Phosphomannomutase/phosphoglucomutase
Amino acid sequence: MISPQSFKSYDIRGLVPDELDREGARALGFALARKEGAKTAIVGRDMRSTSKELAAGLISGLSSGGAEVVDVGLVSTPELYFIAGKEKCDVAVMITASHNPSIYNGMKICRKGTMPIGGASGLYEIRDRIASQNLPAEKDNYTPRLVEHESEYAYKLTSRAKLSGKKYRVAVDVANAMGIRELMVLGKIPELSLIPLFDTYDPSFPNHPANPLDHSTLVALQDKVRETEANIGLAYDGDADRIGFVDERGEIVTADVITTIVACALLREERSALVLHDLRLSRFVSEYIEKAGGRSKECVVGHANIKSEMRESDAIFAGELSCHYYYRDMYFAESPTLTAILVLNEMARSGKALSELCKAAQKYCQSGELNFQVQDTGSLISLLLQKYSSGKISQMDGIKIVYPSWWFSVRASNTEPLVRLNLEADTKEELTLHLAELQTIINSHTHYLK
């Protein structure tokens, strides 16, 4: 069983076994191999109790479809992308449902070059192929090939550490999930004294959901940083392709600040390089990139869109509000651990605490991302375009309307039935004024969630 409803914009995700089971994974593997003409495939999985069985079905289906399969076992999603890029395989699949509860599982799929396969780039075609294909009988005793990758992956990351012998205490919340794999990499950097939180695998997520974008999940990390006087706190999500940051005071550091710090660090190595940032990030991101000699460009939200544009434009780096950070040097894929290393490098180079680096970057007042359920997104967008027609309008992804001292964006989520609002202004007074006005308009179509 693999339900058509489990095919999402960016990945596959559903309840196990009601919407996804071993036979459904086998059917998907066969359809994927045939559609892509795959001769080589890589499969990895997270720590969920259902992931091993789904991997077995997927491997069987890929093999029946003509692919030689490499099983890399228990890995983080960034690890899988690294292996897929290094091995130049035709397709790669990570079995995970990220931070979703343990009753869910899913798959993130990419083709050669770690290019994501999403709804608009072939995933829905695979869904339709499954419905019409004749799935052959399962092969007996197929044994996938194994590949050693841990040492090379660790070296790729740790070789970027330039801490000049300075010692740092680092609290790391891996939330009983795949960040444990990344914790092992950080442990190979001699200057770091790690303070791990929740570093045993448990798919029930007994301490908190593995989702650093939800600030309530960062409380334990904030407390640990303050208690141990750590220099920095890191929080990985369920499959470890996102990372949240806490400074030495236990304060949360936003993604636009981290994007700025990392971009400026990379621009010291490659001046005039292009950096992408999603359109929801603060104005100070582009200001600092350009001040550092780089070129900045806003981009559409979503990992598939960003990875594609990075390749087309040869961008060195991209940052996203959702705490995804992408690197040309990592096959245009996410690398949260490289992000942490580069932030630590900047702390060492400057001799400043993370809070000092943050203070230098933050210039404007922000609403944060606010979510609403809207019955008619189209009519809401039309109303906003009419009311704010005097601003500079972009419809790259939803709408973004910019005025000299403030801006806002409204866009439909790609993953949930929500409309998301972001607003930034020069002053708190202006932020409060325009936020109240926009909430009144949006609330006439919906109700506010969080």
